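If I may wish for something, please sit down with the protein I am sending here and say whether tokens and residues agree:
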Amino acid sequence: MPAILNVTFLSTNNHNNVMGNARGTIGRICRWHDETNQVARRMAVALLRAQSGFRRISGHQQLGELAAALARP
């Protein structure tokens, strides 16, 4: 893995940011109805709202190299 991406993915800040935004959207919901698949729908809305705060990660140019390395057996 390229060094810049390694540093980026070792940090948990990206994950915490997404989960914090999701908690803000779905945090006060008390009842989840399985028959209407509300969990998936609410999480999709939360992620779409969080998307506006995303920034480009450092080393994004090297993501192609990472994908190729992961595809190798």
User: Anything to note?
Assistant: Helices lie at 3-10, 13-26, 38-51, 63-71. The chain has a mean pLDDT of 82. The first helix runs from residue 3 to 10.
